[in-house]
Design brief:
Length: 134
């Protein structure tokens, strides 16, 4: 049996991300568009996650805190989605299966509420992932 907080992650481009990129990756629009995870409403309920609250997403190669929202697209239970960008890149496995392209979709993650954590902005996230202080 698969533990309740294990999910299959899909990352992909989105209209929201594309529009926000025109404003720049440092913009509020980009932050709002890309620092979210879309989840199935029943999965959120099962984990005690309220919409628009922080969650910790972990994969085999990293972790990131993002804001949970009910999926804008149809997501079956056990699936979740983060739009491609700085936040998704923190958890995308580096495996390429000899293609040279990371595995952007179909990889396992765990998700848990993180009410005591903040979603970092682009600079904070990049600096912390590199172990650099400003």
């Amino acid at each position: 049996m698969i533990p309740d907080n294990h999910f299959i992650m899909i990352t992909q481009r989105s209209i929201e991300e594309g529009i926000a990129m025109e404003k720049g990756k440092q913009s509020k629009e980009y932050f709002d568009a890309c620092s979210v995870i879309e989840m199935n409403e029943l999965d959120m309920l099962m984990l005690g996650i309220e919409e628009n609250t922080p969650v910790l997403v972990k994969s085999e190669c990293g972790q990131v805190v993002v804001t949970a929202i009910v999926g804008l697209q149809i997501l079956k239970p056990g699936m979740c989605h983060i739009r491609q960008g700085v936040w998704a890149n923190q958890i995308v496995p580096c495996r390429t299966q000899s293609t040279g392209v990371p595995q952007y979709s179909g990889f396992p993650v765990t998700i848990e509420p993180a009410r005591d954590r903040n979603v970092l902005n682009v600079y904070e996230l990049l600096y912390s992932s590199l172990g650099v202080t400003r």
